[in-house]
C-alpha cells in the first residue's frame, strides 16, 4: 500500500525528486503560517504546523546553501507579514518618502530573516550527520536563533514563537516554569514530530506522534491544574488600580493648542477613577504634553495626587545634566502628598524611534534621522514604592524583554505595570501583538499586569494570563480593578525557581570563578 509520502508528499515536491521551486513554495508556506500564528488576523493553531513544511523539505536537503535560501525565504515572508506597520510609522511620523520607508523596513526584514536561515542550515547539518531523527532536535536550534535575535545589536525579540500560545491558557502555563522560551520549545517540537511522521520511516510514525501527543498532554494537564489551583488570585495584598486611556491622537499630542485639553482630560478621568476607590492611578507613556519636572503645569498633576490621596504613575520626559545633558523617557511615581516617590528611566530604547543606530550611514533616510531625538538609556530597573509595597513599570517596547521584567521581580516587584503609546501603529496588528506579549509576562512571573496605553489597548491580566479588562482601540476609557500585590514568591514558585533556575545560575557562577582564576594565574 503506498505511503502518505508517496501519494501526497512527492507530488508536492517533498520527496527525493522534488523540484527546487516546490521546496521554496513550502518554505514560503511556513513563513505564511508563522504570520497567521499571531494577531490580529491569525490563530494560535497555525503555530503547531507552521514550521512543518520547511522541516519536511529540509529533511531531504543536503546542501547548506540551499537550506540557507529556504530558511531565508521562510524568514522573509514571516517578518514581512508580521511587521508591515513599521513602514506606516516611518512614513507617517518619520517624514520619509514611501519608497525609503519600504527600503528601511525591507532591510530590517532581511536582517531578521537571517535567523530562520541559520536555523535551516543547522538543521540540515544535523540531519546530514545524525540522520532524519535529527529533526527532533529542531526545537533547541530554533530557540538558539530566537535568543540571538533577542540579544544581537540590542535585540528585536518581537513575537517569538512561544507568544503564539499566550491565549491558549493551559499551554501558556508552561511559561510559569520555563518562560516564553519553554513554550517555543514545545511548539517547535510538535512541528518537528509532525514533519518526521510525514517523511520518516512509516514504522516509527505512530511512535513519534504518540510521544508528541504525550508531551503535549502532560503540558496541558499541568496547565489545567495550575489554572484550577488559582491560589495567586487569593494570596497577596488587595490594591485597587485605575487605568486611564486618554486617547490622544499622535498628531495632537504635542500641539500647543491642545495642551490644556489633553491635561484636563487626564485629570478629569483620574478623579473619576479615584472616586471609585483607585489607590494607584496609571497613565500611559508620555502622557503629559510637556516635560513634567520643568513645566509649571506639572503642579496640576501633583495636586491631583494630593486631592485624591492616590499614587499616580505616568510617563514623561526628564532631562538631567550630570555633567552632560541627557534626555530620558521616564516614568514618574507620585506619592499621595504630591511628591515624587521614584523615577524610572527606560532601559531598552526603540531603534529609529528613540535613537538611530548606524546614524552616519543612513544618509538616504535623513528626514527620519533628523526627526528622531536621541534618548539616553536608563542604568537600572528602579522599583516604585507604594507604601510598604514595591511595584515596577516597563515602558512600551521594554515589556517584550523577559529578562528585564524578571529583574524587576527579583528586586521585589509585587505588581507589574507597563505604560505605552501605541498611537503610532494605528489600527494595525501591532497593538494587538504588543498586548499579547505583555500578557505573557504575567504568566511567567506570577504577577498581575496592568497596562495603560494612550490609544489602547489598555488592560489588566491576572497571574495566569486571563485578561480581566481590555479596552478597545481609539476610545477614551477608564478601567478599575481590585488586584493583589505579592510580597514574596509562593512556596511552589520558590521551589521551582531553586530547582530549575538556581542550578543553571550556580553552574554559571562556577564557570565565572574558573575563568577569573585562569586570568589571575596568567597575570601572575
Describe the protein.
With 524 residues, the chain is an alpha/beta fold. The protein has helices spanning 4-9, 20-35, 52-59, 64-82, 85-92, 98-130, 138-151, 169-172, 175-199, 202-229, 259-275, 298-308, 366-371, 402-410, 430-445, 491-523; strands at 237-245, 280-282, 311-321, 325-334, 340-345, 384-386, 389-395, 416-420, 449-453, 459-461, 467-470, 477-485. The longest helix has 33 residues, at 98-130.
Highlighted features:
6-stranded mixed sheet, 524 residues, 12 strands, globular, alpha/beta, disordered C terminus, 14% strand
Portion in strands: 5-15%
Q: Low-confidence parts, pLDDT < 50 over ≥5 residues?
A: 1-18, 490-514, 516-524
Count of distinct strands: 12
- The number of helical runs is 16
Query: What is the makeup of the main sheet?
Result: 6 strands, mixed
Helix and strand content put the structural class at: alpha/beta
User: What is the CA–CA distance across the termini?
Assistant: 73 Å
User: What is the subunit arrangement here?
Assistant: single chain
Radius of gyration: 25 Å
Helix residue percentage = 40-55%
Mean pLDDT: 87
Strand order of the largest sheet: 5-4-3-2-1-12
Q: What form results from the Cα inertia axes?
A: globular
Instruction: Tell me the series of helices and strands, N- to C-terminal.
Output: HHHHHHHHHHEHEHEEEHEEHEHEEEEH
Amino acid at each position: 500500500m503506498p505511503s502518505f509520502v508517496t501519494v501526497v508528499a512527492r507530488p508536492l515536491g517533498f520527496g527525493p525528486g522534488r523540484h527546487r521551486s516546490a521546496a521554496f513554495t513550502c518554505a514560503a508556506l511556513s513563513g505564511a503560517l508563522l504570520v497567521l500564528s499571531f494577531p490580529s488576523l491569525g490563530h494560535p493553531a497555525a503555530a503547531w504546523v507552521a514550521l512543518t513544511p520547511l522541516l519536511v523539505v529540509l529533511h531531504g536537503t543536503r546542501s547548506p546553501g540551499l537550506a540557507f535560501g529556504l530558511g531565508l525565504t521562510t524568514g522573509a515572508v514571516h517578518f514581512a507579514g508580521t511587521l508591515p506597520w513599521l513602514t506606516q510609522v516611518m512614513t507617517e511620523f518619520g517624514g520619509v518618502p514611501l519608497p525609503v520607508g519600504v527600503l528601511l523596513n525591507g532591510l530590517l526584514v532581511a536582517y531578521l530573516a537571517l535567523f530562520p536561515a541559520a536555523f535551516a542550515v543547522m538543521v540540515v547539518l544535523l540531519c546530514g550527520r545524525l540522520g532524519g531523527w535529527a529533526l527532533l532536535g529542531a526545537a533547541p536550534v530554533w530557540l538558539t536563533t530566537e535568543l540571538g535575535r533577542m540579544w544581537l545589536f540590542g535585540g528585536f525579540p518581537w513575537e517569538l514563537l512561544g507568544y503564539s500560545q499566550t491565549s491558549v491558557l493551559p499551554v501558556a502555563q508552561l511559561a510559569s516554569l520555563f518562560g516564553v522560551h519553554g513554550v517555543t520549545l514545545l511548539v517547535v517540537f510538535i512541528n518537528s514530530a509532525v514533519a518526521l511522521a510525514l517523511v520518516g520511516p512509516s514504522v516509527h510514525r505512530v511512535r513519534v506522534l504518540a510521544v508528541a501527543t504525550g508531551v503535549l498532554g502532560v503540558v496541558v494537564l499541568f496547565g489545567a491544574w495550575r489554572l484550577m489551583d488559582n491560589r495567586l488570585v487569593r494570596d497577596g495584598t488587595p490594591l485597587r488600580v485605575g487605568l486611564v486611556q486618554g486617547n490622544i491622537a499622535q498628531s495632537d499630542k504635542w500641539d500647543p493648542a491642545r495642551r490644556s485639553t489633553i491635561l484636563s482630560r487626564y485629570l478629569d478621568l483620574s478623579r473619576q477613577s479615584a472616586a471609585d476607590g483607585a489607590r494607584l492611578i496609571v497613565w500611559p507613556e508620555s502622557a503629559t504634553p510637556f516635560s513634567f519636572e520643568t513645566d509649571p503645569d506639572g503642579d496640576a498633576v501633583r495636586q491631583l495626587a494630593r486631592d485624591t490621596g492616590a499614587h499616580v504613575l505616568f510617563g514623561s520626559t526628564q532631562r538631567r545634566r550630570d555633567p552632560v545633558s541627557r534626555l530620558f523617557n521616564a516614568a514618574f511615581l507620585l506619592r499621595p502628598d504630591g511628591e515624587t516617590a521614584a523615577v524610572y528611566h527606560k532601559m531598552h530604547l526603540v531603534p529609529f524611534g528613540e535613537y538611530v543606530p548606524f546614524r552616519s550611514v543612513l544618509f538616504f533616510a535623513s528626514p527620519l534621522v533628523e526627526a528622531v531625538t536621541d534618548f539616553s538609556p536608563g542604568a537600572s530597573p528602579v522599583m516604585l514604592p507604594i507604601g510598604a509595597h514595591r511595584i515596577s513599570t516597563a515602558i512600551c517596547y521594554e515589556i517584550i524583554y523577559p529578562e528585564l521584567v524578571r529583574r524587576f521581580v527579583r528586586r521585589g516587584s509585587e505588581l507589574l505595570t507597563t505604560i505605552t503609546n501605541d498611537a503610532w501603529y494605528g489600527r494595525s496588528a501591532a497593538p494587538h501583538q504588543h498586548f499579547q506579549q505583555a500578557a505573557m509576562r504575567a504568566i511567567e512571573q506570577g504577577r498581575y499586569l496592568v497596562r495603560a496605553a494612550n490609544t489602547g489597548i489598555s488592560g489588566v491580566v491576572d497571574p495566569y494570563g486571563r485578561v480581566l479588562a481590555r479596552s478597545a482601540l481609539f476610545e477614551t476609557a477608564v478601567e478599575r480593578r481590585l488586584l493583589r500585590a505579592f510580597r514574596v514568591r509562593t512556596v511552589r514558585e520558590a521551589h521551582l525557581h531553586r530547582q530549575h533556575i538556581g542550578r543553571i545560575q550556580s553552574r554559571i557562577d562556577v564557570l565565572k570563578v574558573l575563568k577569573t582564576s585562569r586570568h589571575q594565574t596568567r597575570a601572575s
